[in-house]
């Protein structure tokens, strides 16, 4: 039985190609003195850089490499804006589930004008729009309901509306700029409020439940459609609504 | 009984001694799981579902510097010829759960996710020999689907020795013949063995041949698994960023 050993292609041809766990994408011994920054999905094994997750290898000039992939679980990263659900409250922190490896901590004072006297009371199950302050794999991530300057900036509990879960890739696509086609097309015809978390949670609110349902279903179905297909889908949905 | 026909060299199911059964893999079969896969080797069908990394349920088992990997192997009641009364918890299932856990733990980069838990559930839907190998192959696909950082792809295959011939990928009839059954699990690109099990006895030189045959079988499975993963990841990337 003949099985060819797959050879490793040189680095430049791996960029923007799908790579799988175990693939070696870079041999440091052949490169001159350079600093390379490794993002998610890559690790250094002595003199080689190998892949940890299946996805597309990306390069941001001059020297940042990472593997772009879409999964259901979230890897906490500082300065990400996400949607969390309160699981428990302690004297100093709220314990928040963010779809990551561990629960995150939201200090009770991390709100605009937060003092010991006006600590918010969140019930178990409250949906919060928060910002990740610190994310380190050896500790629980820390969250905050203020932006870097201390202002509230739309962070905090989200009332009413409907929350659904998607993959991290779809969340990134929805948050991309310029505005992704599905949100643009929906926004032209319907009026709704939306909060997208990089951890794959999306919250939609509108004046009528019918609008909320249409928007949520449209977003959930748009994951694998191209821009044009998304616009066509929204057109058809609008026709049905009328 | 004639497991290998002396005249034609064919086995009972018409294969040659160094031929594997037909393999098929599918990713994303369990919607609720973070990663899932279905793997078939001939008539053996196995489903693997992976949950994690997530918060540890039992704080007593938490490990401070790495993720806790748990694995449960179960056989459906209808998977074998006679209806099984105890799908889990019997000796064989406990042993195979342990084997699969150790094999997958060797390839998961657990130190990246301390204080968390990764659950691998494997369920045999149809058992026709080689369930252990099919489970490991399915678990690899499911872990890649879940985006859990791995060193490399683990694949597994079994081989035996009947009628003085090394045979690759035994089915149930050949397995029950009472001859030796060698199961090998390797890290495909790194060419390292993570699982090696044998029951019954074999002289050393013949064992080397049988193990080598099983390793070649593993490499063929790895080739196929890479293709399945590539196809699946390409599909996810297909229209994003258009």
UniProtKB/TrEMBL annotation, chain A:
SUPFAM superfamilies: Eukaryotic type KH-domain (KH-domain type I), Nucleic acid-binding proteins, Ribosomal L27 protein-like. One of its GO terms (cellular component) is nucleolus. GO terms for molecular function: RNA binding. CDD domains: KH-I_Rrp40, S1_Rrp40. It is found in: Cytoplasm; Nucleus, Nucleolus. Residues 36-73 form the Exosome complex exonuclease Rrp40 N-terminal domain. Its main location: cytoplasm. One of its GO terms (biological process) is poly(A)-dependent snoRNA 3'-end processing. Keywords: Cytoplasm, Exosome, Nucleus, RNA-binding, rRNA processing. Residues 161-209 form the K Homology domain. InterPro entries: Exosome_RNA_bind1/RRP40/RRP4 (IPR026699), KH_dom_type_1 (IPR004088), KH_dom_type_1_sf (IPR036612), NA-bd_OB-fold (IPR012340), RRP40_KH-I (IPR049469), Rrp40_N_euk (IPR041054), Rrp40_S1 (IPR037319). Belongs to the RRP40 family. This is Ribosomal RNA-processing protein 40. It comes from Elaeis guineensis var. tenera.
Automatic annotation (TrEMBL), chain B:
The keyword Magnesium does not apply. Signal peptide: none annotated. Keywords: Cytoplasm, Exosome. GO terms for molecular function: RNA binding. One of its GO terms (cellular component) is cytoplasmic exosome (RNase complex). The keyword Kinase does not apply. Residues 19-149, 152-217 form the Exoribonuclease phosphorolytic domain. Its main location: cytoplasm. It comes from the Eukaryota. One of its GO terms (biological process) is poly(A)-dependent snoRNA 3'-end processing. It is found in: Cytoplasm; Nucleus, Nucleolus. Belongs to the RNase PH family. This is Exosome complex component RRP41 homolog isoform X1.
């Amino acid at each position: 039985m003949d099985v060819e050993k797959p050879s490793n292609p040189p680095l430049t041809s791996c960029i923007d190609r799908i790579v799988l766990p175990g693939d070696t994408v870079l041999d440091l011994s052949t490169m001159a003195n350079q600093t390379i920054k490794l993002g998610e999905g890559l690790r250094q094994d002595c003199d080689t850089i190998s892949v940890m997750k299946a996805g597309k290898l990306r390069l941001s000039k001059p020297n940042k490499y990472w593997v772009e992939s879409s999964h259901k679980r979230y890897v906490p990263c500082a300065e990400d804006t996400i949607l969390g659900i309160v699981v428990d409250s302690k004297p100093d922190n709220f314990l928040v589930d963010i779809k990551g490896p561990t629960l995150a901590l939201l200090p009770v004072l991390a709100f605009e004008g937060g003092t010991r006297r006006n600590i918010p009371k969140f019930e178990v199950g409250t949906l919060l729009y928060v910002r990740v302050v610190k994310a380190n794999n050896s500790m629980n991530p820390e969250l905050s309901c203020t932006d870097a300057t201390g202002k509230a900036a739309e962070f905090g509990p989200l009332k009413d509306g409907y929350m659904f879960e998607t993959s991290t890739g779809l969340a990134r696509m929805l948050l991309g700029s310029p505005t992704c086609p599905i949100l643009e097309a929906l926004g032209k015809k319907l009026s709704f409020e939306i909060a997208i978390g990089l951890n794959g949670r999306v919250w939609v609110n509108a004046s009528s439940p019918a609008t909320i349902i249409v928007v949520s279903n449209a977003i959930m179905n748009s994951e694998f459609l191209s821009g044009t297909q998304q616009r066509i889908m929204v057109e058809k949905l609008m026709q049905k609504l009328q | 009984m004639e497991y290998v026909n002396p005249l034609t060299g064919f086995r009972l199911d018409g294969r040659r001694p160094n031929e594997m059964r037909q393999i098929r893999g599918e990713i994303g079969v369990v919607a609720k799981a973070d990663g899932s896969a279905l793997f078939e080797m001939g008539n053996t069908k196995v489903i693997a579902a992976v949950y994690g990394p997530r918060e540890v349920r039992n704080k007593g088992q938490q490990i401070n510097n790495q993720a806790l990997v748990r694995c449960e192997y179960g056989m459906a009641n209808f998977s074998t010829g006679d209806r099984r009364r105890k799908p889990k918890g019997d000796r064989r299932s406990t042993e195979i759960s342990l084997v699969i856990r150790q094999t997958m733990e060797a390839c998961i980069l657990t130190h990246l996710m301390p204080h968390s838990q990764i659950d691998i559930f494997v369920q045999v839907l149809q058992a026709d020999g080689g369930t252990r190998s099919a489970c490991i192959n399915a678990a690899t696909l499911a872990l890649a689907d879940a985006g859990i950082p791995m060193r490399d792809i683990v694949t597994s295959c079994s081989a035996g020795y009947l009628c003085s011939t090394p045979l690759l990928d035994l089915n149930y009839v050949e397995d029950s013949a009472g001859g030796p059954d060698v199961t090998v699990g390797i890290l495909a690109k790194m060419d390292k063995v993570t699982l090696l099990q044998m029951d019954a006895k074999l002289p050393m030189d013949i064992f080397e041949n049988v193990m080598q045959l099983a390793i070649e079988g593993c490499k063929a499975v790895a080739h196929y698994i890479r293709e399945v993963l590539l196809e699946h990841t390409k599909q996810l990337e297909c229209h994003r960023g258009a």
